[in-house]
Amino acid sequence: EQLREVLDSAKGQDTGGGDDDPRISPQAEALWQAVYEDELVLHFQPKVRMDTGALVGAEALVRWDHPCHGLLMPDRFLDLMEAHGLMDELTMRVLRGALATCRGWLEQGLDLHMAVNISATNLHVLGLPDVVQHTAREAGVPINCLCLELTERMLARDRLLSLDILTRLRLKGASLSIDDFGTGHSSLAQLLQAPFDELKLDRSFVHGATRDPARLAIAEASLRMARKLGMQTTAEGIERAEDWQLLRDMGCDRAQGHFIAPAMPADAFPAWMEDWDRRREALTGAHPEPG
Ligand code: C2E
Ligand code: MG
Ligand code: MG
Ligand code: MG
């Protein structure tokens, strides 16, 4: 009885009379609220071809629009989401949001893929490929417009299950991208194990390549290897004209980075595209397609 009284009064103080369980930590509650009460927002960063500058895709990057702290970057909260078991729900919401935006772009006649980052912990649900296929269908987006980017030691936990899921996603038509290539999180062995369509060279090698011969060598070798394996190559973190020129001269297919555009809300995309059409002409000698 006494215990009940204590708990009831704690409840009252905790939430001003709400019915929340007082044993849930404020942090857990905040994280839960972020996911389930739509405090997550998506920004999109363009991927462009290095030969023509044409837009080929966009990567959805999650942010937390925190009621007190403002816009938080994923490095601040993704590990906490994982720790609190919220990663599957986060991924599903990002996927739905990204596909809805993609659908809008397709309707405007843009031809581009949407890239969504998938966490290692998402690769434990055997039904994931079906869920992804169903979600794309519901959003009205062909599944081959969807690219899944895999960071982290994605095959570390349950290798066979992860591989099974990835292979079936690929068979359903989604493309797979190996993210942050060259860091400890993505290894050569992984290239052999899953059917990746794209290799994203980590930005440390992209930056380093202009200054450090060792990093340049690794960048070159990675790109050559990816090409031989039939993969598209993307350089992430292109920040300066020098980075662009060097990576383009190395034959890299695509680029992403602040030099082209930072991640931005979807409604900022049209203005960026207009601006980029002018810049890319100077950069590549290519003429923007009419219309
Ligand atoms: P990532 O997938 O490798 O994404 C690239 C990160 O580099 C993004 O940071 C992007 O804003 C940033 N970036 C892009 N261009 C430049 C540049 O020129 N210079 C510099 N310095 N940075 C650049 P962001 O948005 O903070 O995301 C960090 C990481 O969080 C992502 O790395 C990704 O691994 C993870 N992440 C983001 N959104 C999601 C998501 O929805 N789900 C999952 N599971 N992970 C996500
Ligand atoms: Mg990524
Ligand atoms: Mg990356
Ligand atoms: Mg990264």
TrEMBL record:
The keyword Phosphoprotein applies. GO terms for molecular function: cyclic-guanylate-specific phosphodiesterase activity. GO terms for biological process: phosphorelay signal transduction system. Keywords: Phosphoprotein. The lineage of its organism: Bacteria, Pseudomonadati, Pseudomonadota, Gammaproteobacteria, Chromatiales. Residues 24-277 form the EAL domain. This is EAL domain, c-di-GMP-specific phosphodiesterase class I (Or its enzymatically inactive variant).
